[in-house]
Amino acid sequence: GTTLKAAAERSGRYFGAAMGSDRLTDSGFLTIASREFDMMTAVNEMKPDATEPNAGQFDFRRGDAIYNWANERGMRFRGHTLAWHGQQPRFWGSLSGSALRAAMISHINGVMAHYKGKFAYWDVVNEAYAENGSRRSSNLQATGNDWIEVAFRTARAADPSVKLCYNDYNIENWTYAKTQGVYNLIKDFKARGVPVDCVGLQTHFTGGSSLPGNFQQTLSSFAALGVDVALTEADVTNASTSQYQGLTQACMNVPRCVGITTWGIRDSDSWRGSENPLLFDRNSNPKAAYTAVLNALNAA
Ligand code: G3I
After folding, report:
1. What angle do CA 103, 109, 112 make, to 5 degrees?
2. CB neighbours of 118 closer than 8 A, spacing ≥ 6?
3. Which residues form the GH10 domain (predicted)?
4. What is the DSSP letter of 266?
């Protein structure tokens, strides 16, 4: 394949990107997006604060604009995200206990009803674990330890056609406590029949941290539990070619690694743009890391 998507599709995988609605008027971005990518994610527009700014008042305008653009170009879609400690509606801040739990459930139902049958994946719960492998404390966690399970059960009932994902960062190193915490969550869900179909590893490699040699072991260990795995927000400090090559290769080596998404397309799109972590430069030219990824996809 001569594009990321064509190369990924050779092995039945996808290659995705994230975009904000502000990119819908950026012709440089849109040209690369439609040429190279076959999966799209909204950076902020489908988060709880964006889709339900006031209780029971849903606003899908910006999310729909991104979804429609991608869908019209034959791309599939990853929804991000339904239940998270971050970017919550302001009204959640004055709720707690059973009232907050009810608001979470009604939020999941409202958003998933709108996009029912349209998405390939939903990040149902995002970033619920702390670095030490225990639950991250948050207002949602304070509603009871079963909040994650309730979110997934609600999501399955709301749209049985979409794959339901748990998504987190710093779960790439197999021996890291947080990785083990999330692994045990998924293992428990599978044992008890709680609906979960995939684990998203955000794959933000920051501040000189290197690709863990056991990254592939992490992917295959999750996959062995009976879930898909995906690299959902990939970016790498200075777009190290060896790290991009390694993370792509690890995915290619694991049959249930279904695809890779980068968190933006050009360095100028990135939440950490000063680190130049993406596959395209500010002039929309592919970088050395692009070639490394393309070759690794084509070798599979
Ligand atoms: O839209 C407002 C704008 O009106 C205002 O003038 C401006 C001033 O600060 O803020 C704008 O909102 C910002 C928003 O991005 C849109 O640009 C928020 O402040 C800013 O906090 C928000 O950052 C987003 C971040 O999530 C928030 O948690 C990033 O764009 C987004 O890339 C990032 O994405 C997360 C994933 O969801 C989860 N994993 C980590 C990843 C990177 O942090």
Report:
1. 130
2. 67, 71, 77
3. 1-296
4. B
- Tell me, using a 6 A CB cutoff, whether residue 87 lines ligand 1: yes
| C-alpha 37 – ligand 1 centre gap (Å) | 22
Q: How confident is residue 211, by pLDDT bands cut at 50, 70 and 90?
A: confident
**68 in contact with ligand 1, CB cutoff 6 A:** no
Name the H helices within 115-240. Answer: 147-158, 177-192, 215-223
Predicted confidence band at 276 (pLDDT cuts at 50, 70, 90)?
A: very high
The pLDDT of 239-252, averaged and rounded, is 96
Distance between CA atoms of residues 140 and 121, nearest Å: 22
124-148 pLDDT, tens per residue? 999 999 999 999 999 999 999 999 9
| Ligand 1 pocket test, candidate residues 22, 26, 41, 44, most atoms within 8 A of CB | 44
43 lines ligand 1 (CB under 6 A): yes
User: How many residues in the chain?
Assistant: 300
> Residue 208: what pLDDT?
66
Radius of gyration, alpha carbons of the chain: 18
Answer whether 97 contacts ligand 1 (Cβ < 6 A).
no
Distance from Cα 68 to the centre of ligand 1, integer Å? 22
| pTM of the predicted model as reported, rounded to 2 decimal places | 0.97
The string of pLDDT tens digits covering residues 37-55 is 999 999 999 999 999 999 9
